[in-house]
Specification:
The chain has 103 residues and is mainly α. 70% of the residues lie in helices and 6% in strands. It contains four helices and two strands. It has helices at 17-30, 36-53, 60-73, 77-102; strands at residues 4-6, 12-14. A hairpin with a 5-residue loop joins strand 1 and strand 2 (12-14). Helix 1 (17-30) crosses helix 2, helix 1 (17-30) packs across helix 4 and helix 2 (36-53) crosses helix 3 (60-73).
């Protein structure tokens, strides 16, 4: 069972499978494929693969790579593209929030 995850900044925080399911669900919505049940199934598959492949504490990038792989392997290439675009924009949005808070 995965308990911790390493964030991009090196912090170790609690692992939340629901964050994977939520991000996948948003990618399904972005492609007009609203299906929360599939998002949950994808998140469960991702968690299982992480447990099999990654000893110790996985990193956020590792998890995101596996999400993309699972989406593509399940014939959701359009959803995978939406997830990849979201993934690329998320760090920029976080840094914008930090600058607004500091300003």
């Amino acid at each position: 069972m995965i308990e911790k995850i390493r964030k991009r900044d090196g912090r170790i925080v609690g692992f939340e499978r629901s964050k994977i399911a939520n991000a996948v669900f948003k990618a399904f919505v972005a492609t007009k494929s609203k299906n929360g049940k599939i998002a949950e199934e994808i998140a469960n598959n991702v968690e299982r693969i992480i447990e099999e492949r990654i000893p110790g504490i996985p990193g956020v990038e590792d998890v995101q790579d596996i999400v993309e792989e699972v989406l593509i392997n399940n014939s959701y290439s359009g959803v995978a593209r939406a997830y990849i675009l979201y993934r690329r924009s998320a760090p920029d949005k976080k840094s914008q929030r930090i600058f607004r808070c500091q300003g």
